[in-house]
């Protein structure tokens, strides 16, 4: 033991061991506990062999450990760096996705229902209340109170449903009325080739700040109406983006 600690490099080697342990602890976020346990047990066995072995064998063991520590420390540092880069990239990707689709659950359910209805070519009209009151325009709606689920919306607009002809009114994230008959847009420029649902959507959105979502029965196309403007939607991602734009009170024509 005295010969071991008389080695002028022993403290440097012990410091290398401590440094390695520190790097290992730093890398625990990227290294599994099982791997850490194996490394720790192996290091403990090597240290025990160092203490109990003869001096000449200890020197050879120290050299082996020192070289192994250098390689292991470099490996831990590299893993730590790349894991940090990976986390940054993942955060950016998550941020990008959230900025594209940061919608409440009930709006995601509505979007899902719109996609299903469009694929089935089932006509639909869904009105989302914002700040303005809608009683004047929806007083003839059948009272209804239900959580918004895509399955419920698809069932309401099914051809076999007794309430499929009117609009569904959504207030504060819940279905509050069905089979609402809305006034049609008759003034100003009315787009050519649009049906009753689209005219109803334009009619209520030019007089209120509501958002109206339409599925065309003839073409299976999705559209959104807001502030008296009607925009055809080409994809589910486009639907997310335009609902987000309208929910913020921005012009969907410039989105």
> Architecture of the largest domain in CATH?
3-Layer(aba) Sandwich
CATH homologous superfamily caption of the largest domain: DNA integrity scanning protein, DisA, N-terminal domain
| Structure summary, number of beta strands | 7
Strand fraction: 5-15%
Mean pLDDT: 76
Structural class by SSE content: alpha+beta
- Quickly count the domains: 2
Q: Identify the strand order in the major beta sheet.
A: 2-4-3-1-5-6-7
Name of the CATH first level of the largest domain = Alpha Beta
Low-confidence stretches: 1-5
- Count of separate DSSP helical elements: 9
The run of helices and strands is: HHHHHEHEHEEHEEEH
Task: Bin the helical content.
Answer: 40-55%
Shape: elongated
Rg from C-alpha positions? 33 Å
Distance between the termini: 77 Å
What does the secondary structure layout of this molecule look like, with pairings?
Layout (H helix, E strand, L loop, with lengths): L1 H5 L3 H17 L6 H20 L2 H46 L4 H16 L3 E5 L6 H4 L3 E6 L2 H8 L9 E5 L2 E7 L15 H10 L5 E5 L6 E5 L2 E5 L2 H12 L8
């Amino acid at each position: 033991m005295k010969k071991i600690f008389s080695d002028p490099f022993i403290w440097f080697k012990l410091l290398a061991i401590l440094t390695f342990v520190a790097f290992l602890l730093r890398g625990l976020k990227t290294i599994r506990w099982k791997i850490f346990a194996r490394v720790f047990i192996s290091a403990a066995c090597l240290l025990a062999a160092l203490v109990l072995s003869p001096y000449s064998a200890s020197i050879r063991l120290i050299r082996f450990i020192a070289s192994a520590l250098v390689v292991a420390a470099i490996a831990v540092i590299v893993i730590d760096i790349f894991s940090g880069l990976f986390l940054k990239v993942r955060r950016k990707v998550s941020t990008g996705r959230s900025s594209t689709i940061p919608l409440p659950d009930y709006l995601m359910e509505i979007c899902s229902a719109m996609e299903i209805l469009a694929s089935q070519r089932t006509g639909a009209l869904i009105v989302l209340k914002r700040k303005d009151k809608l009683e004047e325009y929806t007083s003839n709606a059948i009272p209804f109170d239900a959580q918004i689920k895509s399955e419920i919306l698809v069932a309401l607009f099914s051809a076999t449903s007794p309430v499929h002809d009117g609009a569904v009114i959504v207030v504060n994230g819940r279905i509050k009325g069905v089979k609402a008959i809305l006034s049609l847009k008759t003034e100003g420029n009315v787009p050519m080739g649009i049906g009753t649902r689209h005219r109803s959507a334009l009619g209520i959105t030019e007089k209120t700040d509501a958002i109206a979502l339409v599925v065309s029965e003839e073409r299976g196309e999705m559209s959104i109406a807001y502030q008296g403007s009607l925009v055809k939607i080409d994809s589910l991602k486009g639907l997310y983006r335009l609902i987000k734009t309208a929910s913020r009170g921005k012009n969907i024509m410039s989105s």
